[in-house]
Specification:
Low-confidence stretches: 1-6
CATH architecture: Roll
Distance between the termini: 31 Å
Helix content: 25-40%
Largest sheet: 4 strands, antiparallel
Radius of gyration: 14 Å
Number of helices: 3
Number of domains: 1
Order of helices and strands: HHHEEEE
Strand order of the largest sheet: 1-2-3-4
Number of strands: 4
Shape: globular
CATH topology: Nuclear Transport Factor 2, Chain: A
Mean pLDDT: 88
Length: about 90
């Protein structure tokens, strides 16, 4: 039952809200300008997840640039620091 609930968008939003309130991650209002500074374009998708590789919560975003190219941008959700930006060729 827990696995099904964790996959619900409402559960993801509740988890993100709770982490922001606890000061564990930055709110989107602070993250989105940083994304635009790194890769201008339209935000297509946003995910928040914990990555063991970085031992941190990570905002992973897909951004569509003015030329129609899709980019993947990853930021540390706690510090807002850039982890990676690369073309999303998937």
């Amino acid at each position: 039952m827990l696995g099904i609930e964790a996959a619900r968008p409402d559960a993801d939003a509740d988890r993100a809200r709770r982490l922001v309130q606890q000061g564990a991650i930055l709110p989107l209002a602070e993250i989105l300008p940083r994304v635009q500074a790194v890769q201008a374009g339209t935000l297509i998708e946003l995910e928040l997840h914990y990555e063991r590789e970085h031992d941190a919560y990570v905002y992973e975003m897909e951004v569509l640039d003015a030329d129609g190219r899709l980019w993947e941008v990853e930021l540390d959700a706690t510090t807002g620091e850039l982890i990676e930006v690369e073309p999303d060729d998937d």
